Each structure stands twice: as C-alpha cells, then as structure tokens.
Amino acid sequence: MTERIGFDLDGVLSNFNRIILQTIKEMFGLSYTEDQITDWYYYNCLPGFTEEMFDKLFERLVKKKDIWKNAKPYDDKTMRMVADLSWKTNLYFITSRFPNRTHEDTLMQTREWIKAHNIDAAGVVLTREKAAACKLLGLDLFLDDNAENVKEIAENSETHCFLLDRPYNQGYKTDHRVMSVKEFLGWCSDHNGHGYTREIE
Fold first, then answer.
1. At which of 25, 47, 63 does a domain end?
2. Claim to verify: residue 54 and residue 151 sit in the same structural domain
3. Residues 53-95: tens digit of each pLDDT
4. Number of domains the chain contains
5. Is the domain of 20 the same as that of 8?
6. CA atoms within 13 A on the CB side of 144
7. pLDDT in tens, 136-194
8. pLDDT for position 65
9. Has residue 198 been placed in a domain?
10. pLDDT confidence of 9, banded at 50, 70, 90?
11. Backbone torsions φ then ψ of 69, nearest 5 degrees
12. Are residues 74 and 31 located together in one domain of the fold?
C-alpha cells in the first residue's frame, strides 16, 4: 500500500531562519548565526535584539514580496531525495507559515516553491492545526521541527510524527527525534521499501 508522508516546510526543508537573519541585518544592522537561534522568540536568545525589534521584523516580513517563493532550501541534495520520493509515494506538505500579503498568495508561493524543486506534491495545506490536518489526510508519517506540533500530532492523530533536531528544540525529549531529513527518509523506507537507509548524516 502506498503510504502518505508529510513534511513541514520552514525549519525542515526551507531555511526560514536565513530569511530572518538577513532581514534583521537589513533592518537593524545586527549580525547573527543560525546556531544562535535557540528559542522561537528571537529576543530571548539573540544579544541586542529586543521584543520591539521582533514585532517590527514580522511587520516587515508580512509585506516582503515573494518571501516564500524566494526562500532557500537547507541543501540541494536533501531536496533531490525528497523529490525522488515524491514520484514514488504520496507526499503532503503542511505549514503554518504566516500570510505574505494574503492567504491565497502564500499558498500559491508555497506550491510554486515545491514545484520548482521538482517535487510532486499530493497536497499542500496552510494551517496551524497540524494534528487535525494529519488526521484528515490520513498521514502515516510526518516530520516537523516544532516540538509542540510533534506532541499535539502524537496525542491527537494516528500519525507517527518525528522531530527534526534543531538548536531551538533541544529542551523537548522524544524517542522520535531525527538528526536529519535523510534519517527520516530512512524511516520512510522501512515502511515502503524505497531504498533510503536510516543513516545519520
């Protein structure tokens, strides 16, 4: 039976923190590295970055043209592996990214980004209710970088949800933490035999 596998985008395949750091530098002249982002609220972990700056940052991001369409992936090799899998099984993408101008425009940009990386998506969903989406779509496996999402999905659906290791989710303990997207793809291969190995990069 063909499985239904789901991915979050930002923090998993799309490097949203790169957008954040570039915009912070443009607006405030402050430079940071991705490893310094150890909290969802950047003013809790970035020296000199304030809550007021945080609010202004997102005011700018909401208006920034084609922010999602122009986002960079973490690495091209991972995207090729995901693309390869998408032509063999049903892949769904569930993201809670904020509207860039309008909900419809954000959804369109997201679909274009996925297509640009040669990924055949069975569905793209823009929602904060990821557990409900996983349940509705009948997903077997899902990968997210947000520990709260992983917990909610585990408690409210039959989907096996994995947490992708990131500096900002170290405080959450789970037996389903993976160190890379490639490792998650290995779990997928255990179910459907598509040839990836459970190797930690």
1. 63
2. no
3. 999 999 999 888 899 999 999 999 999 999 999 999 999 999 9
4. 2
5. no
6. 26
7. 999 999 999 999 999 999 999 999 999 999 999 999 998 899 999 999 999 887 655 44
8. 86
9. no
10. very high
11. -65, -35
12. no
**Residue in 66, 76, 63 with CA at minimum distance from that of residue 14:** 76
Amino acid at 192: N
Q: CA angle 190-181-170, nearest 5°?
A: 115
Q: Other C-beta atoms within 10 Å of 3: how many?
A: 16
Which domain, by its residues, includes 28?
Answer: 16-63
Query: Which pLDDT value is given to residue 198?
Result: 34
How far apart, in Å, do the first and last CA atoms of the chain sit? 29
23 in any annotated domain: yes
CATH number of the domain residue 170 falls in: 3.40.50.1000
- Reported in sequence order, the residue ranges of the chain that DSSP labels E, i.e. its strands, are 4-7, 90-95, 121-126, 141-144, 160-164, 177-178
**One domain, residues 49 and 117:** no
- Section 98-103 average pLDDT: 77
